[in-house]
Amino acid sequence: MAxxxxxxxxxxxxxxxxxxxxxxACLLFLLWFVSGLVMMYVPYPSLTEAERLAxxxxxxxxxxxxxPTEALRRAGERSFPAxxxxxxxxxxxxWRIRGDEGRAAISAVDxxxxxxxxxxxxxxxxxxxxxxxxxxEVERIxxxxxxxxxxxxxxxxxxxxxxxxxxxxQIYISSTTAxxxxxxxxxxxxxxxxxxxPHWLYLTAxxxxxxxxxxxxxxxxxxxxxxxxxxxxxxxxxxxLRRRYRSGAVTPYSGWxxxxxxxxxxxxxxxxxxxxxxxxxxNPFDWFARNGPTGSAALYAAHDTADFxxxxxxxxxxxxxxxxxxxxxxxxxxxxxxxxPREGRPTIARPDGRALRFNQxxxxxxxxxxxxxxxxxxxxxxxxxxxxxxxxxxxxxxPVIRVIFGDPEKTWVTIDPNSGALLAxxxxxxxxxxxxxxxxxxxxxxxxxxxxxxxxxxxxLLSAFGIVMSLSGVVIGWRxxxxxxxxxxxxxx
Length: 493
Description:
Blueprint: H1 3-39, H2 49-54, H3 68-74, E1 83-89, E2 92-99, E3 102-107, H4 119-129, E4 135-141, E5 158-163, E6 170-174, E7 180-184, H5 186-192, H6 196-199, H7 204-207, H8 210-237, H9 255-280, H10 296-301, H11 313-319, E8 323-331, E9 334-341, E10 347-349, H12 360-367, E11 376-382, E12 400-405, E13 412-415, E14 422-426, H13 428-442, H14 446-449, H15 452-492
Antiparallel strand pairs: 1-2, 1-8, 2-3, 4-5, 5-6, 6-7, 8-9, 9-10, 11-12, 12-13, 13-14
Helix pairs in contact: 1-8, 1-15, 8-9, 9-13, 9-15
């Protein structure tokens, strides 16, 4: 068969493919463009660190009788946990532990396990967190739309406590550790039904099974990318900028088809990039090692046993009198207590309350534990955000120390010079993912994030092209289906 004939057949199939799959794809495109705009202003509900600290009381150090080592023993931990902190729970200091044995809450007064076994306990926790606001309703649940993620698995079953306040606040209390784990208000919930829920295909029935939800995302966004690419190719083939059509137009179409063609050349380009990056959001085929090798925290801490030096509670109270939370960890074999106030920068102390400071040389030397024998190519102190360390949906402390290793994976390690904490470990794969997902999907370049007056109109403009392209595609597709239906009825008649 001659090449022109093959090309003609190929184009016919291209048009057929785009026409029929495009009907469904344009509905998805329209859904994603509109919901994406909503998400710019109303994110998915979450209990932020600032909210958690605001709902906590200052630690009553005078009542701390059970030390960290004893708390770890009572929790059954055999190694130092990923998280060990002290805060106030229902009026008493409590140890919060996240380790190999799961999560546990241990009273710092008498060492008993803390939980919220009944409605009265849940109401007590919720009212203290909400500053005494009355409760209107309490419901025991396993999950709902706002707690369906597997990240809440450890906290189930949950107490869903509705407050009698104007915003319609709901607080979710873990029955296992008696602490708030999620909150939302009526405005967040309403907007998320046209925002994050449709955008992420995050319906409860789908999201309960994480692997199934992942496949749903892959097999909706993946084909949508192919439809978008076919539409771009058709749009370019039908566009005439120099040798125009007889009407003098650059497009052979009119009406809705004209709008679909012209807006699709711009909107389709960004639809493809957004759909492709959305497809990558679930890391298909495990292409990306986003955070580098595991075990970094233990290596950096240089301490693995389930113990911590005895505390001088009076000294710690004097060092951080308004601390809402105390975090306990190790840096290079040295015990560190981080005292976190409701607002402002945390204070770093030794277990006896004395001041603690790290110098850069100590922290860089300790970072070598992560990759023994590997040369360090560069050490950078970041005083302001850059392309790989910036705030977008989470707080990022500054300044930070970045240690760049000369290993085959091109590892970067980020350290907080104040607390000495290991903040991140990233390899070349993770940095590549940053560009293929974050940059393409969120336009989260620092200069755009710092200038919402520029970023927001840009996102609205590009989304407007996409919405017109999608809406016109839906109208065209619907009309085509109606014509096909009428022709079938005519043949039957």
